[in-house]
Each structure stands twice: as structure tokens, then as C-alpha cells.
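Each lists chain and fold; for instance:
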Amino acid sequence: MRKFAVIAIALALGAASSVAMADEGHFFANANAGASRYNVDNPFAGVAGNSFSKTGKAGALRVGYRWNSVVDYGVEAGYGFLGNATARLATDNAVIREQAQTRGWLLGGNLNYNINEQWYVGARAGWFRARSLYEASTMTANVNDRGRDAVTRTGEYFGLGGGYNFNKNFSLGLAYDTYRMPENEYNKNTRIGMYSLQAEYRY
């Protein structure tokens, strides 16, 4: 966490210095809303009575500053909520449920290329300070047993997108981002993908 804070402060100071020196640029805020997909396996696969979902509602908010060039470049910070993956097993005697949920802070950079005045493509990458909450429960006629384990780690994220500029201040597009999920003893080097609609306001 200390290393993450040092990097964040260094990038913030660098951005502030560049803003002071730049001739042109703009602040921006964007929001993504869509669905996440966890790259995890069904723990109850092959067992009768199981159900499994590794997709869920997801979203992200970002703010930052972008400098104008042939390819516009900038820095960004924000927060992402990546939904959850849920597995459920129902037997004659019990209902067993396992769930993973991930959210966290974002810090990185982005590139934006205007193909013409209307259409653009973009990319972004950075650090994802994520917290994953793993929950498990077993319910029977006499027992309701629950347990949870929270894991916080810093990974990375990457994203690509494109869309339409309605004017110099507002654009709407589609994006795909992939995030590294904090691992526990069951999930190693797992990633989460997010497909989303992105709206951006520049000022």
C-alpha cells in the first residue's frame, strides 16, 4: 500500500507540473456502465443441482487531465466496481453458496486518437488497488454457517475503446477493460473483463 501511495503522489505531482507547462489540454470525467465476466471455474461443476454465474453488473468512474497532441495523452484516477461471480449447489439436505466480489481504486494513464471530428479510439492502462471479498455459506434445516475472506492487493488494468464525439465536450462509446483480481488459495492469476458503455465529459 505504501508503494502504491508513493506512485500515486509522484504521478499527481508530475501531472500538475505538466498542466502548468502545457499550452492546451482539458480535464475530463467519464463513467462506464456494463457487465463484468470473471475468469473463474465453477467449484460445483459436474454435481447435480448446481447453478453458476460469472457475470454481473459493473461500472467505473474516472477523472483526469488530458493533453492535446496528435495522439492525446493523459492521467486518470477513479474507482471500479466489478460485480461478482456466484456458485450455488442445492441438495436434499443443504444449500451451499460461494461468491467472489471485487472493487477498487484506479490510477493510470490514457491515450485518445480522434480519427476525425466525430470518431475516436482510445486506450488506457494502470494500477488497480483491488479488494476481493470471498464469501461461503452452508444452510441446512438446523444450521446456517457463513464465512468470509477479504484480500487486498495491487494489480494492473488495461482497456480499449472507441466511440462518437457529439461535440468538443461530450462523447459516447463502447469499451472493454481487463483487471487483475486479488488471488486467494483457489484463484490464481485471475482476471476480470468488463464490457461497458462509456460516457465522457470534457471541460
